[in-house]
Amino acid sequence: MVYRKISWDLKDAALRLWDLGWEEVDIMQGLVVSRASLYRWKKLFEELGTTVRPPPPLVGRPCIITCAVLTACYNIYQKDPDIYLDELQFWLTIHHDIAISISALQENLDAVGLDRKILHKIARECDQQQWDDYWDVVNNDLSGDSDLFIFADKTSKNDHTLARKYGRAPSGMRATTDAYAFNRDIGYSVGAAMSKEGYLAVKVLPGAFDSWDFLEFVSEQVVPLMNAWPQKHSVLVIDNCRIHHNDVLLEIIAANKSLLLYLPPYSPNLNPIKESFIKAHMCCHNAEILATADPIVAILEACGCITAEMAHNWFLHAGYR
C-alpha cells in the first residue's frame, strides 16, 4: 500500500470500530488502511491518549549563545551601540569562553532584533541645561503654542550632494554611471522659513549665504509675513550660527513688534525645518535640478513638495505642540 496522509479523525474512527467488535479485515477494507497502521495507532493511543504522533525533538547542534549571553550583548549595545562585531566576538571569548564566527554572531544578533543602523550622533558640546532653559522659555514665557513660531534656516546643494549614489546591476557586476562630476561645480544655498503651514518663504542663490544674505532674506521675505506678539507667526526661531547674530536683525524684528528666539547650541533636534531639508533634498534628487537650464527655478519648484501636513508632523516630532 502506497503512503498517504491519514487524518486524525479517521484514525480515531478506526479504533472506535475496533472497540465495537469489528473485524480487522473489515476495518482495513472499509477505511483502506493497513493492519500495521491499526496496531501503530492503538499503541500510540495507549501510550499518549491520542492517535497523533508527537513532533520530533529538536535536532542539530546546540545553540552556542545562551539567552543570558544574548542579554549581556543587548546591554552592551545599549551602552555602546558602535561596538564592532569583531570586538564583541573578542569580548565573548574573554568573558564567556565562547568561540563563534562573525557570521553566526551576526545571525544571533539579528534574531533578537539588534539591527545594524546608522548612528544618530549627538554633539558633545550639547548642553542639556540649555535645552531645559529653552523649553522653559517656549512652554512658560511663550505659552508653548507652536502656531506662534516661524523657523528659519539654510542649507546647500551642489553636484556632489545631489548625485545619485545607488543603482542596480546584475550580481557580480558594478553599477556605473558617467553622470558624476568629480570636480566641484558651483553650488547653491537655500534659505527657508517654515511654520506649521509649510514653507512660507524660500530664497535660492549661487554660492553660500553670508550674514547680509541671511539678513536680506529675513527682512524682505520673512518679517513681512510675521505679526506682532502674541499673534500667530510672531516668533522667529533661528539657530546659534554666527551669521545669525546681527544687531540689525534684532532691530528689524523689534520694529515689527515680533520676537526673536535663538535655539541652544548644537540642537538640530529642536529645529523642525532640518527635517524638511531632507525631504526637499529628496525632491531635488528626483528632479535632477543641476541638469536643468535654470537650477534656481528647479530648486524653488522642488521645495514645493513640502506640505502643511508634513510641517505639522515635523513640529510634533521636534516636541512642539
UniProtKB/TrEMBL annotation:
Query: Gene3D superfamilies given for it?
Result: Ribonuclease H-like superfamily/Ribonuclease H
Biological source species: Mycena venus
- Its protein name is Tc1-mariner class transposase
Q: Which InterPro entries match?
A: Homeodomain-like_sf (IPR009057), RNaseH_sf (IPR036397), Tc1-like_DDE_dom (IPR038717)
| SUPFAM superfamilies found in the cross-reference section | Homeodomain-like (SSF46689)
Residue ranges of domain Tc1-like transposase DDE in the record:
150-282
Q: Which GO terms describe its molecular function?
A: nucleic acid binding
Q: Which Pfam families match?
A: DDE_3
